[in-house]
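Pair request: fold both.
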Amino acid sequence: MAKIGIMPPTKTGAFAATGAFMNVPFSSDPAGAKAAILGVPFDAGLHPTRIGARSGPASIREQSLLVRPYQPPHAAFNPLESLGLVDCGDADAAPGLIEESFQEIESAAGAILNAGAAPLAFGGDGMISLPLMRAATKGHAGLAVLHIDAHTDTYRGDGNAVHDRYNVATTFTRAAEEGVVDLAKSYHVGPRGPVMVGDVFEHTRGVGYNLIDGTELYERGLVETAAGLRKELEGVPVYLCFDMDFFDPSCAPGVCTPTWGGATAREGLGFLQALSGIDFVAADINTVSPPHDTAGMTAFLAATVALEILTLFCAAPGMAARL
């Protein structure tokens, strides 16, 4: 059994301690739940200026107490109740220990998937998506990834050292090499400059991914882009990777690599809502960096993104048939 779970809330007299996402039950056994939260308190410590995403899961859980479950008019129901959501605590990851942590993350996500639940993971930096996709592809043949981010995270990473091959910029390069996703059906949405390498967009397409860059996204329109994605991904199991730097730093300052020109909170949440109907089977939210946040606003927004993703789970064809 994977090492998942942290200490559950305890009750002392008339008072109960809190700590789970939106106060859902803690459980180290997700059997019976249709979705489960998994914290992934990991970063590799390789970012040149911002270290802190390892604290993201705790901050998202803390700020989630500000989130309410009903979202009329588009979702006037409680997705936490519909999914029987539980919080499985944290994977046994150790910041800086890449390969060992990847094994633990994959194992923890695999335990949730094997129990019949869809994992929603809280990072952690963008590296966490690779072991999470490794776990998801085992039970979902033809898995595609929909990666919503200010960056493609598909740099070459040709060095021999572990940190050359595995870092936040190479997550999807390694995913392509390992064959964990169907490249022809996988999309990067929203990447924009400035970037470290001038041909990274061309390289990303050369690897085999579809890329809708930030300029194209806004010229086409977010709602129209979402409609196109729903059509292209019909009948495909999809892993959703949401990097919080997709948002503009004006509403999400507490991220590892803030990049101006991103989505407003309204635009980003509306884009997620417009993806309803895609068969999402697992997801992560990454790159919240509490030491660089302002009054918890990025974590609060991430918790709201989590609610939107849980709502998307409810609308996913494979899940909807079980509700």
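--- second member of the pair ---
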Amino acid sequence: MERAKRKIGARGRTVIGLTGPIASGKSLALGLFVKEGALGISADEVSASLLTEPACYNRILRKFGSDKILTNGLLDKKKLAAEIFNSPAKREWLESLLHPLILKRIHSLITRSKKKISVVEAPLLFEAGLAECFTFTVCLAAPDKILEARALKRGWSRAQYGSRIKAQLSAAEKCARADIVLENAGAARELAGKIKFIYRFLKETGRR
């Protein structure tokens, strides 16, 4: 996709881009930011909602074929994911379709909200060239063995985990590109304390 050229927030708002490798705790972190009072947006959830809209649905169906839908007429996201992660060209096509629409939807959600601090969970934030869209970026981190163990606990096979890892930047590269790195190898309360500190600092200092 064409790299984003503008921020997705509005004047006077802080918009945090939240990312990290697979199983690093992105959804947990997003929930903790919301608990503190931020507007929380999941790029994956926005993407999922767009997949049900006729314009996207019909284009994807024409590209990938009718075997990618379930009997209830909804796209089979697991089959679709399996195919695009094994084909860089198909993945690029789908991202070029969805990313501009996702950014537009996120921008709308932020500008319509009265909250001054928003957090957008975006697993492929750096891969999609979206860093400049945000006030600053936060990357979650944990040792590779912990990340893999968490992924396997979710029911993934090692092969599935490996293919997803290969489709993304390495964990080290994500952390190197981020403005802030939050270690999440321990208990949830430890991550909660770190997020509470960041949120309260932003709120008290009026960081923009």
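Observation on the second member. Residues 1-5 have pLDDT under 50 and may be disordered.
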